[in-house]
Write a structure and sequence with these properties.
Layout: H1 2-19, E1 24-27, E2 37-41, H2 42-50, H3 60-76, E3 80-84, H4 97-112, E4 117-119, H5 128-137, E5 141-144, H6 151-166, E6 170-173, E7 178-179, E8 184-189, H7 193-201, H8 203-229, H9 234-251, E9 256-257, H10 258-287, H11 289-297, H12 302-321, H13 324-328, H14 341-357, E10 367-368, H15 378-391, H16 402-418, H17 464-474, H18 485-490, H19 511-514, H20 526-546, E11 552-554, H21 565-570, H22 577-614, H23 616-629, H24 633-658, H25 666-681, H26 688-700, H27 704-710, H28 716-724, H29 734-741, H30 765-775, E12 779-783, H31 792-804, E13 809-813, H32 817-830, E14 831-833, E15 840-845, E16 850-851, E17 856-861, H33 863-871, H34 876-879, E18 882-887, H35 899-908, E19 913-917, H36 923-953, E20 973-977, E21 984-993, E22 996-1002, H37 1010-1016, H38 1026-1039, H39 1065-1084, H40 1088-1098, H41 1113-1122, E23 1128-1131, H42 1135-1156, H43 1161-1189, H44 1193-1218, H45 1234-1242, H46 1250-1257, E24 1261-1264, H47 1270-1282, E25 1287-1290, E26 1304-1307, H48 1316-1323, E27 1334-1339, H49 1344-1352, H50 1366-1378, H51 1382-1394, H52 1403-1422, H53 1434-1440
Parallel strand pairs: 2-3, 2-5, 3-4, 5-6, 9-10, 11-14, 12-19, 12-20, 13-17, 13-18, 15-17, 18-19, 21-27, 23-25, 23-26, 24-25, 26-27
Antiparallel strand pairs: 1-8, 6-8, 7-8, 15-16, 21-22
Helix pairs in contact: 1-6, 1-8, 4-14, 6-7, 9-10, 10-11, 10-12, 10-14, 10-16, 12-15, 12-16, 17-51, 17-52, 20-32, 22-23, 22-24, 23-24, 24-25, 24-26, 26-27, 29-38, 30-31, 33-35, 35-51, 38-39, 38-40, 41-42, 43-44, 50-51
Length: 1441
């Protein structure tokens, strides 16, 4: 038994120790804010705070401060948690009764004084009740200590960790936690299959070991009690404590403060127990005289203990009446307690515990628990004891006043009444014995430092920047005098402005100059120029792969005046002759195009009709392809009618052939698609015969009411015919059919009127608003889903600035270098412009390289590099040329690294901006902050204009204010949001059953819990596909048959769906919102059980998370290919797995090909290759001999033709032999031509992973991660977008804006970095606009509880970062003092200091930043780093002179 107990404990410890080095150190609250619940182990919290180095021993108040500070920090950072204290955990403290009392007080304090949820009802972590509670509450993680105060407590923590992992709850360690102003970082140990398997295999052994450990601890507790209290057992002591409290209740029926009550009850119980202890010793001493005499000599008498209790009562009175400020100033006694007090303290602490833990047993007694945190103050008790042992005997009188003395007498009189077994002495004198409680030491009182304290205060400073930013708090701060040594020493330093190298006297370079330039514009080397040409050719090819847009030549037109929208609506502009000619030409071109398309349709229609009869699916694909390319509405109507007729015929044939068997609704779906298109897009072109055809189709599908509403039948014969067509009916209502089977085909709400500003497509309403923003020189925050078209406004903005002048600059800020490369390629492909010598359209500036950064009109850069330019004092002339700044992926403001740089850029730019993102949860807050910044710049610009105007009037020839060369900019910041994704997203869980990959649809509601809906409602971005709405309705009806609103929410009766031939996406969304609202009302109105059953039924039945599912990765890819779900992105989070899975998929295809390949194929290929080599040599030899011997041309020609023919034949055979079968590759060979493919391949010839990537690419596979070079990434990106590569494994590098849309996204590996933000960024890739109406998301090897948290969690709010650092302050000082335009430099520096997002609407944080600025400035001045700023040191110089 002992051996098994030890072995299982060692195994558990080993398992935990093995997992600790694998723990991820990350932010706890950056991913699942406001939607995730977690647990804190209360005993771990207690142990962590008790072991805190800063904790002052003996002061419970300081301990409670540490606890509350930690909990407040967690709470302020958005933590939603409960604290759990297990009953069994109490056993670990019985050897340290002081902590036992502290634990009890902590639990009571948290329960009675705070609003924190505290769980104390569970006996242990292995109890059934705890298991059920974890299953219901679903905590994401549990914060636990990795080590206890002793081995037994460490084992208890290990049990909690193992059991939590088994329940799929992650563990976060207390040790190593760090916190900043926004985040809490900790070691995060994820639950994995191996830990769950360990627990399940060793369940009985673990339970037995736990029970054995508890039994041992219980025996140890009883042994400790027996030593102190003799025959009194634990329960006896509980009874004694309760009796004492009942007596006190009779004495103080009105109640009391907890400190008074605990003091008197604990002292009285302790005195009685100590008397018993002495009596027991007397009995033992009569039996063992010799041994006990020695012990008796080291034991305190009852009178000694009475004196000690008096001192304790007096210290409690001091606690009650002395303010904390006075208690904090008390002297520190270094003397320790005498050894004989050890037993006294133990007994007293046990009595405290028994009283405190049973205080709730007394009913109808009012106790004030407010000061539970201040029950003991040992330093204060030592001070009182020291006084009465040393100073009182010397004649010092302690005059504490009548109030304290009366309080003390009252407490001691109560103790006397509570002690019934013997007479307790009078309250005075306090000391009746000569026994000292403190050890005698040479220096019992800690002496204060004798060193003279230096003068405290700030070094005097005065400059415009400091005064304007911190002027309101400077008056409240102490400053040093002019004769202070610190101040006088500073002015002795020589003031200098070091702008040149000390040895070469060359100007100092800045970060811009030190960045490597890609191209040298001055060189004329032909080889170099060819490389430049080659680079530009590839850039255009790369850009073309990003979007198929033809290059546009930009001609400078000058700035256009703003249009007055109100006038333009009321009065039409007068049409000029040129406009009339252009309109007529356009009309003729359209007519000519229509005629051409009609001829094309006449040519293709017969072949398409034949194809539809032969193979309906293939024919419909050809028809769809034609419709996509066709622009003429009249031709589209003809094609749609042909398709509709073919659908009707095919549907009838299928129904006749199948009889009573289940119908395949794909033909019916195609038929309704054609009907939707005709009625919604081309209704004005339909004739009566067309409407009759549509009505026949609707009737055939069983939608009689819809048919009658469109074309009422009047002939009875027709009615009889229609009734016979019931056998063709789909068997369900039209609304249900459209939602359930046509959900992703439903027509989206789109405007049909073109916009003159956009040539390529018809913009939606929100996109037109963006164009208006750019036209009016306004700023905007744009929040729209990925692939919704928000980036188009960026290119419209670039085009506008390019047309206005050759001077204006647009800066495009991207978060990553990969995204920079994409934008540069897109701009270079889109625009060409003839510019003056030395200027170019597009430039790039990153930390690695720069090209044409300051002589371009469109600069694409990363935040850090743009900040370099904005803060560089001598680059401000270039900065003033900036007309617009575009911030892509602006949600990086909330990131952990570099987020403050985004903030600096947003507050420093003076021009309008566009801030784009798909994932901002609080865009209104962000917009309000940015509007405040713009209002600041409006005031600054107004003041500077007035200054410039006054200078001009006075004749001064100063620098002209050139910030607004064009029309005056607008300072308005608009918020433009668009929530609707163009494509629906559906989620699926992958599992392995009998070695087969299976998929289960995951309904979004399956991720929710009743508690989550009750507290937060449905997440705002939790959208259903139409068929998921139907699924929810059916489940609600199934669970609650008497549901009152069932009829109203039935699809056929719902207001926005009833009797509609064309149900649109917006109608389906309204139905979804009504269902969500009704389901929420179920919970609010008390129908919780029904709601819980609905969520349970919507959850997938089976999900196998084994932790080893990556072994089946190739089978997963193959299954997706069979389901036509490629191209797909597979997200993994470890580089080795990213490359390994791609190579495994490739090996799988190679093995598959090897099995299919003929055994003699390799030999045949070898023979053919040898023959080809011989033929080639023969041809070369014949050519050479023929030239030398002048052989007859005809004979030589015959031989040459024969050899060449044989050569071509053998070459064709060899290619066919080596050709990869279509089912052994995922590559689409038709997607890209050989020349382009070889050009892409040639770029990675000398790259580290080049050969591997080419080998994988030939199989249609690639991988993408941050350790790859730019050329390697571009190979994968280009070929994936072209459709050649259709399987890519990747890390999160693809999540941030990289243009790689796909049909499916697969999460194939769990990670702490797979959070709410990354999840939404990654899933945004699924569903290619214009190609896929439905995007699929698959979870493979992800725990089901993690899937639920990802789907329901909110994106973190943008709350800002701590914006300042000492280096930034130094750069701001340099900008303010050395900028080309000092006023402009000062305004920018002041904007950075004043407008922190962190301090927005938070005055306390603003004051904190001001103090940080001042302290940083003091540091810089002392380090002589800020002395170059004349203004900063102005006051110091004046004072010294």
């Amino acid at each position: 038994m002992e051996e098994h107990y030890t072995v299982i404990l060692e195994k558990m410890s080993q398992l935990i120790l093995e997992n600790m080095p694998k723990a991820d150190y990350s932010s706890l609250f950056n991913d699942f804010v406001e939607s995730e619940f977690f647990l804190i182990d209360g005993d771990s919290l207690l142990v962590t705070c008790v072991c805190e180095n800063l904790l002052k021993p003996g002061q419970s108040l300081h301990f409670f401060y540490l606890v509350e500070r930690y909990l407040l920090d967690v709470n302020c950072k958005g933590g939603h948690f409960a604290i759990v204290f297990f009953k069994d955990a109490e056993y670990a403290y019985f050897s340290v009764p002081r902590l036992l009392t502290l634990r009890t007080a902590l639990i009571m304090h948290l329960q009675k004084i705070t609003d924190i949820d505290v769980w104390t009802e569970f006996s242990g972590c292995l109890s059934e009740e705890w298991r059920i509670s974890l299953g219901q509450s679903c905590p994401y993680f549990l914060i636990l200590a990795d080590e206890g105060l002793n081995d037994q407590q460490t084992h208890l923590f290990n049990f909690i960790a193992i059991q939590s992992w088994a329940m799929k709850v992650n563990i976060v360690l207390f040790s190593g936690q760090t916190s900043d102003i926004l985040r809490l970082y900790a070691y995060f140990m994820q639950s994995s299959y191996s830990e769950q398997e360990f627990f399940n295999k060793n369940w009985r052994k673990i339970l037995m070991a736990y029970e054995t450990l508890i039994q041992r601890l219980e025996k140890y507790r009883d042994l400790n009690l027996t030593t102190l209290f003799g025959d009194l057992k634990f329960n006896n002591m509980v009874e004694k404590a309760c009796e004492t409290m009942f007596l006190l209740k009779q004495l103080w029926p009105e109640g009391s403060d907890i400190r008074r009550a605990l003091c008197v009850t604990s002292c009285s119980l302790f005195l009685e127990m100590y008397q018993c202890f002495l009596e027991n010793r007397e009995k033992k001493s009569s039996k063992q005289m010799c041994e006990d005499k020695q012990e008796q000599g080291s034991c305190l008498t009852l009178k000694d203990v009475e004196d000690f209790c008096k001192l304790h009562c007096l210290s409690v009175v001091f606690q009650l009446h002395l303010p904390l400020s006075q208690r904090a100033c008390s002297r520190f006694i270094t003397s320790a307690w005498i050894k004989d007090l050890k037993t006294v303290f133990k007994m007293k602490q046990w009595c405290d515990y028994f009283i405190l833990s049973n205080v709730n047993m007394i009913e109808f007694w009012s106790l004030d628990f407010l000061h539970l945190s201040d029950l003991s103050d040992e330093p204060l008790l030592k001070n009182i004891a020291f006084y009465y042992e040393n100073e009182n005997s010397e004649g010092l009188n302690l005059n504490v006043g009548d109030v304290i003395m009366k309080e003390y007498v009252h407490l001691w009189d109560t103790v006397s009444k509570l002690v019934e077994n013997f007479e307790v002495g009078n309250p005075f004198p306090l000391r009746t014995t000569e026994r000292h409680f403190l050890k005698k030491t040479p220096s019992p009182i800690k002496e204060s430092s004798q060193k003279k304290m230096p003068n405290l205060g700030f070094i005097p400073m005065s400059c415009a920047l400091v005064d304007e930013f911190t002027g309101d708090i400077l008056k409240e701060l102490p400053f040093l005098k002019s004769d202070d040594p610190i101040v006088s020493s500073l002015v002795k330093h020589k003031e200098f402005d070091e702008l040149v190298h000390w040895h070469s006297h060359r100007p100092l370079s800045d970060d811009y100059d030190r960045t490597k330039a890609n191209f040298n514009e001055c060189t004329r080397d032909p080889r170099y120029l060819r490389s430049v040409q080659k680079y530009h050719v590839f850039q255009r090819f790369y850009g073309n792969s990003l979007e198929s847009v033809s290059s546009k030549l930009i001609i400078t037109q000058g700035a256009k005046p703003k249009k007055d929208c109100s006038k333009s609506r009321s009065k039409k502009p007068r049409e000029t002759k040129a406009d009339r000619i252009a309109r007529e030409n356009k009309k003729r071109l359209i007519a000519k195009e229509e005629q051409r398309e009609e001829q094309q349709w006449n040519t293709l229609s017969s072949s398409i009709e034949k194809e539809m009869k032969r193979n309906f699916s293939s024919g419909m694909k050809k028809l769809e392809e034609f419709l996509k390319s066709c622009k003429s509405n009249s031709v589209k109507v003809q094609a749609e009618k042909v398709g509709l007729t073919a659908c009707l015929t095919a549907w009838k044939e299928q129904c006749r052939a199948e009889g009573e068997t289940t119908k395949d609704f794909s033909i019916a779906v195609d038929m309704m698609k054609r009907i939707h298109s005709l009625l919604d897009k081309h209704s004005e072109l339909l004739q009566e015969a067309d409407q009759k055809l549509i009505a026949r189709c609707l009737t055939c599908l069983g939608f009689d009411e819809l048919a009658s509403s469109l074309y009422p039948t009047q002939d009875k014969a027709d009615d009889i015919k229609l009734k016979k067509m019931n056998k063709y009916s789909v068997g369900i209502g039209p609304a249900r059919f459209q939602l359930q089977y046509m959900g992703h085909h439903l027509i989206r709400e789109e405007r049909k009127d073109p916009d003159d500003r956009v040539q390529d497509f018809i913009p939606d309403e929100w996109q037109r608003e963006l164009l208006d923003v750019v036209d009016n020189d306004e700023s905007a925050v744009i929040v729209a889903p990925t692939s919704s078209g928000k980036t188009y406004a960026s290119y419209y903005c670039m085009e506008k600035v390019l047309k206005e002048s050759d001077e204006g600059v647009v800066v495009y800020v991207s978060p990553t270098k990969a995204l920079v490369n994409q934008v540069v390629a897109t701009v270079q492909n889109r625009y060409t412009k003839i510019l003056p010598a030395g200027q170019v359209v597009c430039g790039v500036f990153t930390r690695d390289y720069r090209q044409d950064a300051l002589n371009c009109q469109v600069l694409v850069t990363v935040p850090a590099c743009f900040e370099i330019l904005l803060l560089a004092p001598h680059r401000q002339s270039w900065v003033k040329r900036i007309r617009y700044v575009i911030f892509d992926e602006v949600h990086c403001l909330g990131g952990e690294i570099g987020a403050e740089i985004w903030e600096h850029l947003l507050v420093m730019i003076r021009c309008p901006f566009l801030a784009l993102s798909a994932t901002i949860s609080n865009p209104k807050h962000l917009t309000e902050w940015l509007q405040l910044v713009k209002s600041y710049w409006e005031k600054v610009d107004s003041a500077m204009e007035k200054t410039t105007f006054s200078k001009r009037n006075s004749g001064a020839r100063g620098s002209h204010y050139k910030d607004q060369v064009q029309a005056k900019q607008s300072y308005k910041v608009r918020l433009v949001t668009h929530k609707e994704r163009y494509n629906d997203l559906e989620k699926h869980i992958c599992s392995v059953r009998q070695d087969e990959i299976c998929f289960d649809h995951f309904h979004p509601c399956a991720s929710l819990t009743i508690d989550h809906i009750e507290k937060y409602g449905f997440p705002s971005d939790l959208a259903f596909s139409p068929r998921e709405s139907i699924q929810l309705y059916d489940t609600m009806l199934q669970v609650w048959e008497s549901w009152p609103k069932a009829q109203n929410l039935c699809p056929e009766n719902f207001t926005h769906l009833k009797n509609k031939i064309v149900i649109k996406k917006l109608d389906a969304r309204k139905y979804e919102e009504s269902l969500k609202e009704e389901f929420t009302n179920w919970i609010k109105n008390g129908n919780v059980e029904q709601a819980r059953m609905v969520l349970q039924k919507l959850s997938p039945d089976f999900h196998d998370y084994s932790g080893r599912m990556l072994d089946f990765f190739p089978h997963l890819v193959e299954k997706l290919r069979e389901m036509d779900k490629l191209p797909a992105l597979f997200f993994l989070f470890r580089l080795s797995f990213v490359e390994g899975c791609a190579e495994e998929a490739c090996n799988f295809l190679e093995e598959k090909e090897e099995k299919k390949r003929h055994p003699k194929a390799d030999k045949e290929a070898h023979v053919i290759a040898n023959r080809l080599r011989k033929l080639k040599k023969s041809l070369e030899k014949q050519q050479k001999i023929g030239d030398e011997n002048n052989e007859k041309p005809s004979r030589r020609l015959d031989k040459s033709i024969m050899n060449e023919g044989e050569h071509d034949y053998l070459l064709e055979r060899l290619e066919k032999n080596l050709e990869i079968p279509q089912d052994c590759t995922y590559a689409d060979q038709k997607a890209i031509d050989d020349e382009s493919l070889q050009m892409v391949f040639s770029r990675v010839n000398n790259q580290r992973k080049g050969d591997t990537l080419k080998q994988l690419a030939r199989r249609g596979i690639g991988f993408h991660h941050s350790s790859m070079s730019a050329k390697e990434k571009q190979l994968v990106e280009i070929l994936f977008r072209k459709g050649f590569i259709r399987v890519v494994t990747a890390t999160g590098t693809l999540a941030l804006g990289i243009n790689m849309p796909c049909k499916s996204v697969v999460f194939a590996q769990d990670s702490v970095y797979l959070n709410a933000l990354n999840f939404r960024q990654m899933t945004g890739r699924a569903g290619r606009r214009g190609q896929d109406l439905l995007g699929d998301v698959y979870f493979f090897d992800i725990p089901q509880f993690k899937i639920k948290k990802l789907i329901k969690s909110k994106v973190p709010e943008l709350r800002g970062q701590f914006p300042l650092s000492i280096s930034l302050i130094l750069r701001l000082l340099l900008l303010a003092s050395k900028a080309d335009d000092p006023e402009d430099g000062k305004a920018k520096a002041l904007s950075v200091l004043r407008h922190s997002l962190l301090s927005f609407k938070r005055p306390q944080v603003e004051d904190m930043l001001k103090l940080y600025f001042l302290y940083s400035l003091q540091f810089l001045v002392k380090e002589v780093l800020a002395i170059t700023n004349n203004a900063v040191m102005n006051t110091v110089e004046q004072m010294s002179s």
